[in-house]
């Protein structure tokens, strides 16, 4: 008797517990009828960033008391994969940060809600001052589908202590003598490399994220594909020359860490690193070294600059896309853009001046801001991207593995890569 | 039996004719297995059916389109130029893993099947990697296997310029296999140890009296008597080898080239990185068929390789 009673109680308990267990609880957000809960996925978990975003959300709530905005930090390395998995699972966020490399996929697929009308209708927004070049990748048929809230130039951080100790010329000295070229930069890196320290590091490249090499090969006027994105141009002379130069720097001059070698510039272990200026926050405070920030060296094709971008878009599939677009308009209005620019350089012309940038980037000197930031954003090309970039990236990465060997046949490897990505580019 | 049931029922208790003791027992049995049954249905059977359904579609996640394409994804399997390399890498990885893992596990089990003081310390040591987090284990090995990492540092002490383990095609595959073997060899070792301890000592005594050398004892007595465990461990290891993912993702990302791109990693790339969920599902179906066929084949082979079955 007791056995059956216990059994019945257990079944009843399960019957009550199971629906509770699978119900969508946990957000803690009130679900009143008129309440609107917006979620934005981001790849930053930086406390200062989150505080700023939270303040912006609070500011929006003053005029929209029924709207609550939450931010969901996803890991940087797998951000796009995690985002698309959420979308596939029917749990798309209302708003999302988007990498510049994935921009074409999101913009061309129709996944994003057009922002132009909302931005124009927002009082005091002044959409016209957004640089057209900066907005190009995020625009389709004249409509902006994601706002490029971060336009950050690549530059060269320098450890002057290491360079001087090796007896080589510093980049500042070379710039003053009009000798800041890739040949001289690699010569300096090689001299430091021979002391047992690292020479030059293209940060985050790691023989995987090859698109970061655009910070070097743009100096040769090289590009992985044609301007219309339809034709592979990796077999053309500028790319062959640029990759041969990098190959020599790695395997002959020992000026760059080889595959499988890890050296950290910000720990004081390398002479130079190419990265975005926002990485200045990584400079050591405990054991500081004499550092400098200089523009990328001059290549055979002349001076150049490279910029990385991040956009924020509204998912078309969201129930509250219109409200989400209004939030994006608020988040990126002139006032909030000025606040954001302390972390994410803005493409608004009114914020691209030394006075504003000096306030928001206290670590940089006036000269560094002028020569690196303002000039970089104004003239820089955006890092390569393409529709279906994830697949193209993987195929090229796999093909470039043949280049990163001491005895590589670079033209043959590039020929093979073009053969593989040719059909992908035409899709 | 019916008489027993009648007598067992408490007197004076009313009972419907439908809820006989046999039915109640059946219901109780079903309720006990219900959590597992629900779990398998929700997380195995339904997803399996859905994956098959997805494999017949082109699913563009970003554009939110889901178009029936019939067998187009299966046709793509045949035309995929990367697939032969991927299947080759998968076969090399599985074969290497199974041979190395089972041999080492058996060797360790035989060595540790001794009644010596402190032997349990060694057993614990060899088993401990099994309970370590897989990703943490792999990340640490990733550091050790770098060009300027710990392993090459040790080799340099002996004047050997070590290879770039994770960047050379051959050493990359060997490295991934070794990292996986060291992680899980303890589990098979424990299973073999249990089997070895179940072999009756009298058989060895009889063999010794007959003058059989130790290797012959091992071949004629030990191996046949632990053959059910060999079958079990080989099935588990092969199935496990076909599901390897984290080690590849952390150590090599499938490189250099496609040399360590095994089927599960390729499937992940297609579905979650390239957003080809339909084709990714088709690859899943292919993996499911491969695992099922291999398991079935091994099960059928038990009559030849298993000396006895309980």
TrEMBL record, chain B:
Task: Give the principal location in a single coarse category.
Answer: membrane
| Pfam family membership, one | BPD_transp_1
What are the subcellular locations of this protein?
Cell membrane
Q: How does it sit in the membrane?
A: Multi-pass membrane protein
Domain of life (superkingdom): Bacteria
* Alphabetical keyword list: Cell membrane, Membrane, Transmembrane, Transmembrane helix, Transport
Could you say which protein family the record assigns here? Answer: Belongs to the binding-protein-dependent transport system permease family.
Name the record gives this protein:
ABC transporter, permease protein
The organism that produces this protein has a lineage beginning with: Bacteria, Pseudomonadati, Pseudomonadota, Alphaproteobacteria, Hyphomicrobiales
